TrEMBL record:
Residues 2-109 form the PH domain. It is found in: Membrane. It comes from Atlantisia rogersi (Inaccessible Island rail). This is PKHB1 protein. Pfam families: PH. Gene3D superfamilies: Pleckstrin-homology domain (PH domain)/Phosphotyrosine-binding domain (PTB). GO terms for cellular component: membrane. Its main location: membrane.
Length: 185
């Protein structure tokens, strides 16, 4: 997975509102992952920016948040999620907070997975002469590289997850009932 930005940020816990320092890594696919330290062995959590981020606020926009001791309010960074929850972070400097905001917004707006790229040939189209003119590859000048963006096929939605759990439970119950049947042979 391609790395967009990484570094130390302070993260405010959701229950006790304590500040904890974590190593954050933002990947090109929109995953913001935070770890205990730079070794990236023990993951503390993950935020799917592309799918769950609604807004990113910095500095004075982060109302009702007290920065960690010794830090300025301008270093604050709040990621507002679609479910209404917030993740509050604090950077080492105001410039670092602005850089993180720009990186998160870029990851949020970058289209899904990049599956393939094609180079347009000399004639302006990369499709065979008999293919329909509605091909998306006819819209550019020769020498332009096209990138086809598709939805992540491995992304699981909530209803798919529920259906999978239900199917697993039903299969487990059916197989479990065989264990109680007496053996007649």
């Amino acid at each position: 997975m391609a790395l967009v930005k990484s570094g130390w940020l302070w993260r405010q816990s959701s229950i006790l509102r304590r500040w904890k320092r974590n190593w954050f890594v933002l990947y090109l696919d929109g995953s913001l992952v935070y770890y205990h330290d730079e070794t990236q062995r023990d993951m503390d959590g993950r935020i799917h920016i592309k799918y769950s981020c609604r807004d990113v606020r910095i500095g004075r926009e982060c109302r009702d948040v007290q920065p960690p001791e010794g830090k300025n309010r301008d270093c604050l960074l709040t990621i507002v999620l679609r479910d209404g929850s917030k993740t509050t972070l604090c950077a080492e400097s105001e410039d670092d907070a602005v850089a993180w905001k720009m990186a998160v917004l870029e990851a949020k707006s970058t289209p899904g997975m990049l599956n393939s790229a094609r180079k347009v040939g000399r004639g302006g189209c990369s499709h065979p002469p008999r293919s329909p003119p509605t091909s998306p590859f006819c819209l550019a000048a020769p020498g332009v590289t096209h990138v086809i963006v598709r939805e992540d096929p491995y992304r699981v939605s909530g209803d798919q997850m529920a259906l999978g759990l239900l199917a697993g439970a039903a299969t487990g119950a059916a197989l479990g009932s065989f264990m109680w049947m007496p053996c007649w042979f």
